Amino acid sequence: MTISPSPQQKREKTFSLLFAFAIVLVAINLRPALSGVGPLLSAIRSTIGLSAAGAGGLTTLPVLCFGIIAPLGPLLARRFSTERTILFALLALAASIVLRIFLGLPGLFAGTFLCGASIGVVMVLLPSILKREFSKEISFITGLYTMALSLGAAIAAGVAVPLQRLAGGDWRVALAFWSLPALLGTAAWAATGLRRHAGESQARQRVSGLSRSGTAWQVALYMGFQSVLAYCVFTWLPSILTDRGLSAVTAGAILSTSIGAQLVTALSGPWLATRGRDQRLIAAVMMGLTLVGLMACMYAPIQMIWWSAIILGLGQGGSFSVGTIMVVLRSPNPQVVASLSGMTQFVGYLLAATGPFFAGLLRDISKGWDLTAVFFFVVSVGAMAAGIGAGRARHIKLSGMAEAG
């Protein structure tokens, strides 16, 4: 005998689907305000007199904000609730996107800073929502979340110049455009997220002792090292490829192909990570793919460059998504997820902000990319070691908590 779901159960299921859709809309908005800047840098520099150093600072600033602001997210969540804090951050994101087109250079930098701060707060808190609301479907919803992040970045980078051309060459319109999907994501969150207060009392609890957990540091270092490689690829892969004799257009297309390949493992990585007893193997495999793809882009025969870029993208998309779900799986409850997410983001993005600088410095010292390749190798091995440690099936042990596994 089959028991039909009650009207209440049907309403709950429908609302859960709408809530998941709202999370995807929010996640899509966590990259376009930043990834849409790079293709417009030449136009921005020529219009407002931005120096090359200033352009580098403009692209590094939000990455630093991700790390510096990360510890603030759990504090705000305890004060206002996780749901309201995310809503405030989304509103601030939409406003800061518009701010960048006013007040010249000061407005551009102030708006970029606020963009990074707003996105940083949302990225810290959303994983705790995923664990609290979708614990039974955690691999699927985490995959959707990480795929939406990658998708938003890819779309923004791809349409930045076409948007500028549609606006008659005005880069300000191309930047301001992203306030519209940000407002759409804000509205979707307001309609669904604010109705979820089941974990509000948990969000107000204080988590202490996280920095004394070896497992927490392994998760943070894994996320940090993979972020270093990700931002080095975004920054330097086109230059590496042009130094190998490819045109700038082809180098850009190869980078776009690599980013597109990330969508596959961004979605499937969390599912794969929950198929085995733990995540040690999948973390090592994804980082191995990243290292092989990156070295192949630098040294393999040029005929293999497209396949190399695809391997690199599969590795990087999987490394990020597996790291994201390890934040959830290693945490015993949602409040620890928020705090661990803040810790990993603080460590990860501070490392990521320095990675491209060191890669470029080594390039200048050696007058080539060999020393930079050694740097990439060392970071990859460090990430693999941290991932194997973080992938063990256990919960983080804090005061009064027994470590499971």
UniProtKB/TrEMBL annotation:
GO function terms (MF aspect): transmembrane transporter activity
Keywords per UniProt: Membrane, Transmembrane, Transmembrane helix
Database matches in InterPro entries: MFS, MFS_Cyanate_Porter, MFS_dom, MFS_trans_sf
Organism superkingdom: Bacteria
Start and end residues of each Major facilitator superfamily (MFS) profile domain: 212-405
Annotated TM spans: 51-73, 85-103, 109-130, 142-163, 175-194, 215-237, 249-269, 281-302, 308-329, 336-359, 371-391
Protein name: MFS transporter
Native organism: Noviherbaspirillum galbum
